[in-house]
Amino acid sequence: MRLNFRHGVKPNRASGGLAHLQDAATATFQAGHSVKYSDIKQSVLSIFGQTASIVPFIKGSPGTGKTALAIDIFRSLDIDDERILVLRPSLRESVDFLGVPQVVGTVSQWSPPAEIHQLQHGRWGVLIDELSDASVSVQNVMCGLIFDRQVGRVVFSPDVYLIATGNRTRDKSGANRVVSKLSNRTLNLQFDADLDDWIDWAQDAGIDPLLIRFLRFRPALLNAFDPDMESSPTPRQWEKVSRIPTTLERGCYIELLSGLVGEGAAAEYLGFREIIGHLPDTGDVLRTPQRAPIPRDPALLYAYVGALAEVCDAENFDQVALYLRRLPPEFGVMLVRDALKRCPSLRQSRSYLRWAMDNASLLES
């Protein structure tokens, strides 16, 4: 989606209108707790279509794509890359935003930094990156920058759009507590990586198709950040995995994988690459469930059943149920239990109810 607001956005300065818009947006996002990439992008673009005065603060665990999301939003507003300013408050002291003092006649005044001074005119996207890593004194400066859209004597153009990003303290990644007065000046959004969104991006970004297929098999590994591990799986690290040459010697290859996503995820991915050629396409089950192949090797059947559970939903369970009748009973139960965890609405499917009645003893065991 690409929206052209270049000439159309005129921020609404009516305080009541802004308060109502921010309260409504906050309530919408809080209702669902964490929100995925595409939903945040669409909603923020809608808000920016009304006003530039609301500042989204996108929070999430490390490596999930918060910075990329903010830049993507700016680009969708037709803001050129050279007019996207990235500020990293964690690398600044509070006085850095004011500039340096100089004597003018008999008084002194602050001479602002060039990057702040330029925001007085024109259309800009300002990314306040890793805001939660900033010190309290710098967070205090951010309160004025975000709410008043002003630093010292520099007042921002009405066409300056601000987005903040940051990690969460509960992820133990080095983030500081964001002071309450700053949180009260932003639209706080909890962001989680979403497999479907990531796959949409990965397919356009040239990510190894086998890696995409692996994460379809093991979606929990897309973002399994662990602060106690030196390396753990995140969307950012999987992107790097895709850039490692697969022609390397096996021992070297797995060492490099482990250095990015940890030993466990690396071993699973390498094992998947080595057996993937023997797995049937899950689409065969949805197209021709009574003729789709059943892997004979138990290890392959475990993997295949897991893949089917990931694609099974209330709309296609009629086809899956026909395939279930051909599976060894224990594997059928495994598939259904995993599918129900991901898609509870399956319980309303007539095919599921018939299958459950026929296999009640297995389900209870």
Q: Could you state the CATH homologous superfamily of the largest domain?
A: P-loop containing nucleotide triphosphate hydrolases
Q: What's the Cα radius of gyration?
A: 25 Å
Annotated CATH topology of the largest domain: Rossmann fold
DSSP strand count: 10
In sequence order, what are the helices and strands, one letter per element?
A: HEHEHEEEHEHEEEHEHHHHHHHHHHH
- Overall geometry comes to elongated
> Beta-strand level of the residues, as a percent range?
5-15%
Distance linking N and C termini: 49 Å
Please identify, by name, the CATH architecture of the largest domain.
3-Layer(aba) Sandwich
Fraction of residues in H or I helices: 40-55%
* Overall SS class: alpha/beta
Largest sheet, spatial ordering of strands: 1-10-2-9-6-3
Instruction: Extract low-pLDDT stretches.
Output: 1-21
Number of domains: 3
- CATH class assignment of the largest domain: Alpha Beta
Helical run tally: 17
Please outline the major beta sheet.
6 strands, parallel
Q: In words, what does this structure look like?
A:
- With 365 residues, this protein is α/β, with parallel strands linked by helices.
- It folds into 3 domains: 15-90 and 118-192, Rossmann fold (3-Layer(aba) Sandwich), CATH 3.40.50; 204-278, no CATH class; 283-364.
- It is 46% helix and 11% strand.
- It has helices at residues 15-31, 37-48, 66-76, 114-117, 136-147, 180-183, 195-204, 209-217, 235-242, 250-261, 263-275, 283-287, 298-311, 317-324, 329-342, 350-358, 360-364, and strands at residues 34-35, 56-59, 84-87, 100-104, 107-111, 124-128, 150-151, 154-155, 160-166, 187-191.
- The strands form 3 sheets. The protein has a 6-stranded parallel beta sheet.
- Strand 4 (100-104) and strand 5 form a beta hairpin.
- 31% of the residues are buried.
- Residues 1-21 have low confidence and may be disordered.
